[in-house]
Amino acid sequence: CAKRAGRGRHAVFEPAMAAEQRTKLEIGEALRQALADGELLLHYQPVVDVATRTVRGHEALVRWDRPGHGLLLPGAFVQVAEETAQISRLGAFALRQACRDAATWPDRNLRVAVNLSPLQLRDPALMDAVADALRDSGLAPSRLELEITEGVLLERTEAVLGAMHRLRAMGVAFAMDDFGTGYSSLACLRSFPFDRVKIDRYFLREAETEEGDAAIIEAVAALCRRLGMTCTAEGVETEGQLRLLARAGCTEAQGYLFGRPVPQEDLLRARMAAA
Ligand code: C2E
Ligand code: MG
Ligand code: MG
Ligand code: MG
């Protein structure tokens, strides 16, 4: 896949850059400690069937309960984890915890989706991290799905393809996350063995009024059917958006309309209440 633009960084030295670098190192160091101290946790958000609203699975989203800073969202630390070589540890934590949690869910058919940094696909330790998480939890591999975003870091190399094929051979599925926002989403679909596409919420935001956005969603859903992949829309917040997805032939949906990301305890409590 193609490279993304360099996030507006300047090549020349600036004091602001030095400060930014220092902050990054500080967060990185704090994160290293947090991983050891168990300050990271997962929240879960439901993914539902568009036609029936039945829950099909949950996506695991990492949070950092950082003392004195409150609950931090991934936007505040995942990139730092990538840049300070801690993404594999963060990833191993997410895999282990998500598999362990999913193994306790009363409904044995529910999937759990774990986000992976493209960097992890090049890490030889990933295979063991997945295998260990599955073995220790006893979770059926078919219930685990790994979500990857397109990006500079996702390169079509033997190592990356080999890792994906070996994991799929174990029974694990792959979803392409945030589809349509990168420079070469279509090339990514062609180059890698994905089972699912997750349409970025950017396309849904104004889809009820913007014909073009609705057309793109329809086209992606049709493409998925043609390629034998399932299709999930992200960021569904209104009933109107849900109707639009049904018309477009998109099979699954995720968003605040169905539930925000919540801790595992709340998930179980909500299910008990619904039952
Ligand atoms: P993502 O995988 O695309 O996850 C969906 C994001 O959209 C989540 O943000 C979720 O809270 C948010 N969202 C869900 N429904 C709605 C909605 O209806 N409206 C709006 N406005 N937002 C919605 P979050 O939790 O802040 O995560 C951001 C990103 O961080 C994720 O995007 C994913 O790329 C990354 N991430 C999360 N957990 C992990 C992890 O364990 N490892 C790695 N490497 N990345 C992670
Ligand atoms: Mg995701
Ligand atoms: Mg996404
Ligand atoms: Mg995203």
Describe this structure in words.
The chain has 275 residues and is an alpha/beta fold. The chain contains nine helices and ten strands. It has helices spanning 15-37, 78-83, 87-104, 126-137, 158-170, 185-191, 211-227, 239-248, 264-274; strands spanning 40-49, 55-66, 70-72, 111-116, 144-149, 173-179, 196-199, 230-233, 252-253, 262-263. An eight-stranded mixed β-barrel has the order 1-2-4-5-6-7-8-9, surrounded by four helices. The longest helix is centred in the N-terminal third of the chain and has 23 residues, at 15-37. It is globular and about 50 Å long. The protein binds ligand C2E and magnesium ion (MG) (3 copies). Ligand C2E is lined by residues 45, 61-62, 73-75, 78, 94, 115-117, 147, 149, 177-178, 201, 234-237, 254-256, 261.
